[in-house]
Amino acid sequence: MTHFFESLFINPKWYHYIVIVLLLPLSLLYGAILLLKRVLSRAKGYSIPIVSIGNLIVGGSGKTPFAIALIEYLTNEGVEQIFYISRGYGRRSKGMVLVKVKNSIECSVEESGDEALLVAKSTDASVIVCEDRDSAIVKAKELGAQCIVLDDAFSKTAIKKYDILLEPAEVKNRFVLPAGPFREFPFVKSYANLMLKEGREYRRRVSYENLTQSMLLVTAIANPQRLEAFLPPNVVGKLYFPDHAYFDREQIVDKMRELSVTSLLVTEKDYVKLEQFKLPLSIIKLKLEIDETILKKIKEEACKQR
Predict the structure, then answer these.
(1) How far apart are CA 148 and CA 134, in angstroms?
(2) Is 102 left (phi over 0), alpha (psi -120 to 50) or beta?
(3) Rounded to 10 degrees, what is the CA torsion of 161, 166, 172, 173?
(4) Which of 148, 159, 166, 168 has its CA nearest to residue 86?
(5) Cβ-proximal residues to 82 (8 Å cutoff; 6+ apart), any chain
(6) Are 218 and 234 a contacting pair, CB within 8 Å?
(7) Tell me: the pLDDT tens digits for 207-255?
(8) pTM, full prediction
(9) Domains along the chain?
């Protein structure tokens, strides 16, 4: 069922449109409710620059590597005390968790979630995960935050922020949930401060670390098929888990033995969960190349937001 809807969202075939038509009334109702909420909402200011990196489509669109690239740029430009705030998708904890304060990582990946821990390890930013973004922002200010980067907060209309929306290079299904991948009507993108399209304002750059003779791809990301274009030729098998899932070591080891592989090929997001297994790992390293003019624009305009 998960594979069916992933295909329906990303690359619908003729038979998917039967289901899409049946779900359209629910999509229109869902989209209308969210639009009404957005129109009626009044945003609260926090007297601090807040940048939100989001998208209108479910699944991966590069939000985490974009956040990492933006935080690195702002840090190099002299912006201090940057805090990254996320809901902490896939974590096994609840409430507010201080993942990293200054240079000290305070918790495990199970408590933080994979994406939050990846940001904590990849940047100088402090990191907080919390379902309640308002509480997390207040806490970040108490801890000395001078700038906040919010993950996936375009829908959080009660927060005054600088909204960046990321759009994939190609979107074949432009319907709202549940008939399509859009979280809100596509035209709602006009509410964003900045709309960036992959392949135009930013591009993916892939490198590898510790490649071996034969590798098993193991990943728990949304739409794992998007990795196909970046795989080296010596991948002899693939093992997909649901997005943000925690891995079963025994299952992975059995598959490694079956295929006689010399390492696992994993993304950086998967690596933060797999490193504790002490298995040989090869890493797909994804970085976003963002136009310098875009980064400069974000810094200049976002710092005016209060």
Answers:
(1) 12
(2) left
(3) -20
(4) 148
(5) 71, 74, 75, 123, 124, 125, 126, 145, 146, 147, 148, 149
(6) no
(7) 999 999 999 999 998 878 788 888 998 999 999 998 888 999 999 999 9
(8) 0.92
(9) 2-39 (no CATH), 42-174+182-202+289-302 (3.40.50), 205-286 (3.40.50)
